[in-house]
Structure formats: C-alpha cells, structure tokens
Amino acid sequence: MTIRVLLADDQAMVRTGFRYMLEAEEGIEVAGEAGDGLEALRLAGELRPDVVLMDIRMPGVDGLEATRRLAGPGVADPLKVVVVTTFDLDEYVHAALEGGAVGFLLKDAGPALLIEAVRAAARGDALVAPNITVRLLKHFARPARTPRRPEEEARRQGLTERELDTVRAVAEGLTNTEAAERLFVSLSTVKTHLASVQAKLHARNRVEIAAWAYRSGLMDTEGSASG
Hints:
This protein starts with a strand and ends with a helix. By secondary structure, it is of the alpha/beta class. The chain has helices at 12-23, 37-47, 63-71, 90-98, 111-122, 130-141, 150-157, 161-171, 176-183, 187-201, 206-215, 218-226, and strands at 3-8, 28-34, 51-54, 80-85, 103-106, 127-128.
C-alpha cells in the first residue's frame, strides 16, 4: 500500500527537499504541499493523506494549532501528524504531542529518520527523535512527587506484568518488532498488549503510554534495578 504524505512548510526549498527524499522511497508518494497552516488544513480535509509532515512556524495558523485541529483530543477522525521543525524546544515538543502528533523530528534528522517516522506513523506507531525522547519524557512526565509506588499505580490501572514489560519497552523507544524480540513474544502479542494498555490508561498513542511510564516512576524503578 502506498503511503500518501502531505507536506506543510512555509519554505518551498524544504518541501522540495522532503519530496525528493520521500519519493525516492518505494511505497511513498507526496499527495500535496501546503505553504501555511490554513492551506494545510484545507488540503488535509480534501486529500485525507495517510501522514502529514507539519512545520511549526508558519504564517496564519501555526503548525501546533493545525496539528490540534487535525489530530487533537475530540477530533472524530484524526490524521497522523509528524511535526518536523528547526526548533529543538521542549515546549514545542510537548505542545505537539499534547496536540495529537505521533512524531517529532528536527529538520536536520536526515532522510533515514524522516522516512522511518513516516512509515511508523502510517502503521500507527509513534517516533520521536531519539535525542529528544528521554529528555522530553523525564522533563514533562514526572510529577513533583509520585503519589504511589509504580507497582501500586500499575495495579490500580489494571496492568498485567506482561503489559508492564511492554510499557517499559515502549518508554525506551523500542519499536513493536524490537519489543517482541526482547520479550520473546510474537509481534501480534505486542500489539495486543499495547491495545489493552492504551485502553486501560486512556492513552491516545504510544507516546502517551511512554509518558505514563515516566510519570508513574516505572522507569526509575527499572533504572535502579538494572544498575
């Protein structure tokens, strides 16, 4: 199946570069280009692309607001939005993910990571640039103090031990395939665990699952146990 991508960036040269990188890959095509947020919203509604690559700083409606309108809480049929920006600011990352984005990359991430993020979004996974992920989650997900021990919080949410193992893998940034290899289970089992976890935690995507893992102190427990 061909992945149809909408490019939203106010710089024509950036859109041209992304188009060149994406269309060099088999199974990916650029369905349209938008030079500002309003045009991105219009084209997204008309084209219903599989993935939207969204810049943040654009005239009119900025990329964060456009992302909220396309993928945020309450959107009936959300699109898969990956934010790609020049600005490595935690506030932007947090706002993008809170707004429903399933990925966050910097424009200098390179073609391999860009393509990986598009494919991940299309299949329902999330990809945040590795140099941002842990810093982001630790900074924004940890409360002033954890009200319960992680195990108590997990039990309160009804998570099984196997589901907790899957949550840890997700919080470390592993893909479904990598999680399956680590846990010695099938890929379909990992997907089943994630669907169950998502329902129990009321999480919209795996980024929110990972945030819960850090917020609950689960990753602190893992880190201290491993050394």
